[in-house]
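input
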Amino acid sequence: MTETGKGPEGPKTAGARAREDRLKAALRANLHRRKAQARARAGDDGGKNAGDTSPNGVEPPPAPPRSAPDS
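output
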């Protein structure tokens, strides 16, 4: 990351620093909100394991093997 106030424009003004601080705070809040949403989505599985694909928690029987196509 670059340091605040170091750049081709020279030292930043108070307004530019305030804007940067607001943007940092907004980005941080957005990140926290997105993480909370992801945790909520992960918790909405009703206590099932991540590998469960069926709605009732019972794994379907395996599919029969396919025969090779005739060439």
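quick obs: The two ends are 59 Å apart (CA to CA).
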